[in-house]
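Sanity check

After download, print the first record. It should look like this:
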Amino acid sequence: MNYVVSRAALAAFLAVAAAPALADAFSSLTVSNVTVTVIDLDPNDGIAASISFLPDPAIYMGGALIRGEAQNYGDSLSGPGAQNRTYANSGAWPSTNVANSVQTNLAMQASSVTGSSSGVGFSALSMSGSALSGMGQRSRFWASTNVPGSSSGLLDFTLSANTQVVFSVDASMSAGTTNAIPWQGISESASVTMTLFAGGMAPDAETPLEDIAQQTLIVPGGGSDSWNGVLSASFSNLGDASTSGVFGANATIEGVAVLAAVPEPSTYGMLLGGLGLIGMLGRRRHRAG
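Expected structure tokens:
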């Protein structure tokens, strides 16, 4: 009886060893509580602290731009069974809500931005994606969100003298993968990045002042990570006259799923042959006893 149990356990072990190892990837990001705080750096100068966004975002500036991809394929995107789905959407106005999603057999991606007619042009955004592995298939998702969605990706503003402006958001992000085994030299991965940018010129009108706030998660195969917190970027006008500045927000997510190499038929044959040899030896020992 001990022999039978041992052989069954070994057979199960060999079956697991011969099976392909699936490797999936996931990423998500949510942003909320978008705030613009104006701070008077010299309350005694007689100038009220203020900010105005130029050009008027309700008339001239478009809303957010979202782009996304979902793919699954074998050796290449042009091979049999390959799928490639993409989208690109932008809001006509900052107050426009923008959303879209895309899906293949193994991958999906969805993004949305809640527009705002005041402030920096949005009040919330979310992005998520998943890439699953399949027999002989790898998959991938990718997405990018820009606010504003203009070609420069920057929103102009005018800031009063001796004034600081702070742009801040609450962000929650996560990324994860399920297996650390590469396939054909490619390892699974998942990532999330959120960036805020604020900048302008110093009082000498020659020196650029920039502040970049960025949080990134990069997860290799077989891991996971998450982050929750506040991102803030600021610009200070230390001059005695109003000056111009710019603000921008960008977010990206990406994930790649792969399938560990499937054993060749010859490998399966060796495994089965080894199991048969063990069985034969076991029977001889049983008869000898």
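If your output differs, re-run the checksum step. Summary of this record's structure: The chain has two helices and 15 strands.
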